[in-house]
Amino acid sequence: MAEAERIIGTPDIPDADRDGQDRDGQDRDGEDRDLRDRDGREPAGADGTTQEAERPRGRRRIAVLFAVAAFAYLLDLVSKMIVVAKLEHHEPIEVVGDWLRFEAIRNAGAAFGFGEAFTVIFTVIAAAVIVVIFRLARKLYSLPWAIALGLLLGGALGNLTDRIFRSPGVFEGAVVDFIAPKHFAVFNLADSAIVCGGILIVLLSFRGLDPDGTVHKD
User: Fold this and answer.
1) Per-residue pLDDT at 42 exceeds 80
2) Residue 48 burial (CB < 10 Å; 0-12/13-18/19+)?
3) Which letter does DSSP use for residue 204 in this model?
4) Nearest Cα to 212, choosing from 120, 145, 163?
């Protein structure tokens, strides 16, 4: 039987069938390209290999977010401890003449000393911001967004720690501010981290970059 098949040869596939196979392959390729265009990522195979590849990338972005947040938080915490121990109830330290000095001030309001009558409200807002950032972290695939959210998280945690643990009471504590530029409000490193994170988020939004890595173009 095998010898007969060798002599006779394998029958040719009809042109119509070959064309159909070619069209099927092209259709599948077109569908894959459409998926890439719509989603911005490679389509997943039957075994979910693309999703498996994306999970480590998402975990790395989350690690960056928490690393930035931890750095900003610890830097703010240590600076406030030093200011309370060495600068509070002492004369201000001039850093750049009278243009910039370090002066310990207790601030019951929001960033830069605004709204001192709404301490509890600002505490609740800071806690809500932290919750929102944790929820966004679940779909985070963008490195710039990870850095921006990390700055926001670290700054919010820094000031929230003051609200909870400093006098006059829980959720009413006054934040320690010490950076005093001339003709400007006194602030701290947590305020700086929040402002920098907010500016970065605005820039990313103008560029059309979402936290999940999707880019929107007009």
Assistant:
1) no
2) exposed
3) H
4) 145
Tokens, residue 165 = 């643990």
CA distance 43 to 205: 26
Cα separation, 161 vs 165, in Å, equals 6
Catalytic machinery residues: 177, 191
Cis peptide bond upstream of 56, omega within 30:
no
From residue 20, alpha-carbon distances to 17, 24, 30, 87, 160 in Å are 5, 6, 15, 82, 65
User: Which pTM was predicted?
Assistant: 0.71
Give the CA radius of gyration of the chain. Answer: 29
Cα separation, 138 vs 60, in Å, equals 12
- Model confidence at 138, in pLDDT bands (50, 70, 90)? confident
- Cα-to-chain-centroid distance, residue 154: 11
